[in-house]
Every structure is written in C-alpha cells, then in structure tokens.
Automatic annotation (TrEMBL):
Pseudouridine synthase I TruA alpha/beta domain boundaries: 10-108, 147-251
GN (gene name): truA
Protein name from the UniProt record: tRNA pseudouridine synthase A
Lineage, top ranks: Bacteria, Bacillati, Bacillota, Bacilli, Lactobacillales
CDD domains reported for this sequence: PseudoU_synth_EcTruA
Residue positions binding substrate: Y114
InterPro entries, per the entry: PsdUridine_synth_cat_dom_sf (IPR020103), PsdUridine_synth_TruA (IPR001406), PsdUridine_synth_TruA_a/b_dom (IPR020097), PsdUridine_synth_TruA_C (IPR020095), TruA/RsuA/RluB/E/F_N (IPR020094)
Catalytic activity: uridine(38/39/40) in tRNA = pseudouridine(38/39/40) in tRNA
HAMAP family noted in UniProt: TruA
Keywords: Isomerase, tRNA processing
Assigned protein family: Belongs to the tRNA pseudouridine synthase TruA family.
NCBIfam families: hisT_truA
Length: 266
C-alpha cells in the first residue's frame, strides 16, 4: 500500500547547484530523489520528489519541505532514519510524517520565513564566507528598522525581482520584517515572513536595506522603488551564502496569516 510522505529538510547549500534537479549537476532535489528511489528498490516509474520551492546555488535551508508518494507504507520515523543513512552529510531529514493524499508541498504553502546573515567585520572572515554575507561599512540599525516598515503589507515588488522570474504577478504580502544585531558574532540578522517571495527578492531587499543603513540611500527609498517598478534602481543583490530558508508554513501553522498565494500570483 502506497503512502504520501512529507519531509522537513535541512541542508548546507554550499556544494549544491540549488534545489531543483538538473542533469549532471549536484542538487538537493537530485540527491533526495536518488535516496528515495534507492529505499524503494528503484521502482518503475521512478518516484518524483516535490519541494515547497527552489533555493538557489549556495542558499541554505533550516526547514525546507518536500513530499513524495512511496510505494510501500512504512513508519514515518523509519523513513527518516532510512533516508538519513543514505543522504550525503550536507543534508538531513529532520522530520518525516505520513501526509494526507491531497497534500502538496508547493501548492499548499501559505507562507515562508527567510533569514539573512551579514558579517560586519572589517575583513571578510574565511570561516563565514559560505554562511554569511559581508559588509564592512558602519550601519545605522535605526534607519534599517524604520525603512523595514515600508515592506510590511501587500506591494508590487517589481523592483525587487531578478530577471528570469516566470511568475505571473510580482505582488506579494510581507507580514513581518525585522533585524537584530548579534554582538557576539558581529552580525546583522534579517528575518522576513510573507505569503511568498520572488526570485532573489530577499537578497535584493537586504541589499537595499544595508545601503539605507549605511546612508547611501534615503530611509524612504523603498517607497520610491515601488513606484519605479524597475529592478535596475535597487542595484545590489547580496550573496547567496547568507540566505537561509527558515520555515515553510501550511494551513493551520499560522492562524493569523492563513491565506495561500493566489494562483494568479504564482
């Protein structure tokens, strides 16, 4: 008897060419697909893994979600342990559960939460180069917090999406945007929670915010960028190394913001 499994994954994106499977390239989806099919003794047709969304090369995940249909009904924890015995050391299944047959890791998403880390050291730390962005100039956090208020709510983020995006609409809703200074690590840590994010949106938003904090943009510049609707004026895209997919939300996870991304915006 077959069953649909939902997994929560964590992975170090440093040595992956992103999440999405690609021929002759090491990806998260590719490694997981190989492991799942190996556990199922290489069935025909092969098992397909569906993720909540893509992460780019170098981007990390603390809580990526996937699902797949497995030809045998085995205990969820046995699935977790079995996959972890096969998967490479830079990825791990944190949670496995048997989902409802209609559950879909991508289409049922109601929100996502991302974290971005910036090392503020004068010199680039070689031990952080794969896990944080770097900014050596003085930063005024008060300006950043003030500017972040303009991100909250529903907006057209056309100035904050990289070329190559194939979505129908650039309108997204951000529920929460915050930044904290971690003195012990000499880092700024940004966090964003919304109903969905565009291609490179978080990295572009952080680039704008860090320039506001450094005084090279006015505090109200995000409002100007909304009106312009042109990616060129946002300029900077911070490095992939500092970005982490922290959490993927589904119906019931967050009663305050239960709305899925409308189909016309996907």
């Amino acid at each position: 008897m077959s069953a649909r499994y939902k997994l929560i994954l964590t992975y170090d994106g440093t040595n992956f060419a992103g999440f999405q499977r690609q021929p002759d390239t090491r990806t998260v989806e590719g490694e997981l697909t190989k492991a799942v099919n190996l556990m199922a003794k290489k069935p025909t047709p092969a098992i397909i893994v569906y993720g909540s969304g893509r992460t780019d090369a170098g981007v990390h995940a603390l809580g990526q979600v996937v699902h797949f249909d497995f030809p045998f009904d085995i205990p969820a924890d046995s699935m977790r342990k079995g996959l972890n015995s096969i998967l490479p050391v830079d990825m791990e299944v944190l949670v496995a559960e048997i989902a409802k047959p209609e559950f879909h890791a991508r289409y049922d998403v109601s929100g996502k939460r991302y974290v971005y880390r910036i090392d503020l050291g004068e010199f680039r730390n070689p031990f952080k180069r794969n896990y944080a962005g770097h900014w050596k100039f003085p930063v005024d956090e008060a300006k950043i917090r003030l500017a972040m208020k303009d991100l909250i709510g529903e907006h057209d983020f056309s100035s904050f999406v990289a070329s190559g995006s194939s979505v129908r609409s650039n309108v997204r809703t951000i529920y929460e945007a915050k930044v904290e200074r971690h003195e012990a690590d000499n880092e700024l840590v940004f966090e964003f929670y919304g109903n969905g994010f565009l291609y490179n949106q978080v990295r572009i938003m952080v680039g704008v915010l860090i320039e506001i904090g450094s005084g090279t943009r006015p505090v109200d510049d995000i409002q100007r960028l909304y009106k312009l609707g042109d990616r060129r004026y946002a300029r900077r895209t911070v490095s992939a190394s500092g970005l982490y997919l922290k959490h993927v939300y589904y119906e019931g996870d967050d009663p305050e913001h239960p709305t899925k991304l409308p189909k016309h915006q996907r």
